[in-house]
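Cont'd.
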Amino acid sequence: MAKQDNAVDLVGLLAAEKQDLAASWVREVQESLGRRVGAAELDRELRELYEALVEALRQGAQDVHAEQMSEVRALLTELSRNRARQGFSPSETAISVFALKTVLEPALRDGSADTVRAYLQLGRILDGLGLFTIETYTQTRDELITAQAEQLLELSTPVVRLWDGVIAVPLVGTLDSARTQVVMEKLLQALVDTGSEQAIIDITGVPAVDTQVAQHLLKTIVAARLMGAECTVSGISPQIAQTIVALGIEFDGIVTKASLADALKLALRRSGVDMVAHAGVQR
Amino acid sequence: MTAPWAAGDDPQVYSVARSADVVQIRQVIRALAQQCRLSLVDQTKMITAASELARNTLTYGGGGTVSAGVVSDASKRGVAAVFEDSGPGIADVDQAMTDGWTSGGGLGLGLSGARRLVDDFRLHTVPGEGTTVTIIKWAR
Ligand SMILES: Nc1ncnc2c1ncn2[C@@H]1O[C@H](COP(=O)(O)OP(=O)(O)OP(=O)(O)O)[C@@H](O)[C@H]1O
Ligand SMILES: [Mg+2]
């Protein structure tokens, strides 16, 4: 029976001055967020949340994870996701929940032991809801960051056509396995799309080549060969060359050139293009 | 096994739980190597060794930690890194250290290559308990 009484206390605390409380809650949150969330939207969000919370407590919900809280959790999830997407900070997001505690404080003035007990208990529930908000927020941010990283991955790996039948990928920056794989797949696809027979992989901008990157390179070169194309690796810096040797990676049978220019010259010669310097042009 | 750090040179500890962490380790080692004024070749060697060992920690050790920092003895400074996991350990160390031997689909050059890339290399492993690899590259 104690449970039921509790529920009455908690609901009583929230529903006492119902309209007032919800309205002050909205006002409190609005102040902390400034004008970045529309007043009408915020009002709707928080009133829905308020109704759902009162209902959950009426049904005897004891904490965030309670069955009866599922509606509250759904609303909070939506709220947190929106805030994360709009670029609010975690604190600005959690304040939406914690502000309700502040708003409830005046109810303590009557000082009855029951009210204090109810306030403390509700406080614990609200703390749980606040943490839930932060967790959802973080999850959304992680998803956003992953999505952006994937976009970058796509953006940062251009395959360029240098000449008829000659394509090149200039690799820049740290190569992790995912990125190397994307580049290599793109290169093989570009060979098909452009009908090229010469490919140049330029690693001038790569600070380190470890066994994993080397393995991706080697596999791509073998795959390109199977497709009837020839690959040249250019831009191997002295420090990478020495590291590759010390690691024991064998680049046997793979054509390497010091610079992209040299690799292009070779590729052109292989495709039967002659470069002729005209006598009249001053160099 | 004794840690390579002298008193006062406390290392930073980084967790290795996914492949993005391996990239971060490379960047951390690069910063330390520059701080110790390692030559460009030595920087690249140390970064590459760290990359290999961190990936082993992740792939075979099931994740773990890397402690990295500056070390010094009477006459020189260097960069040290300790890779620790509590994975399955390595049953046959000689085999694992053989060029070209891999239990997965690698080139089998990570461990043996890393040893050639650094100045100090210590491998401590207990089957069923985990693996610790310590490496140091000294500034010349
Ligand atoms: N931390 C570890 N825990 C358990 N086993 C390991 C660990 N590190 C390496 N090994 C074992 O040693 C073998 C050799 O490792 P090594 O790094 O030389 O090659 P690899 O990782 O298989 O290939 P790669 O050339 O891509 O590094 C691995 O295949 C694995 O069986
Ligand atoms: Mg390895």
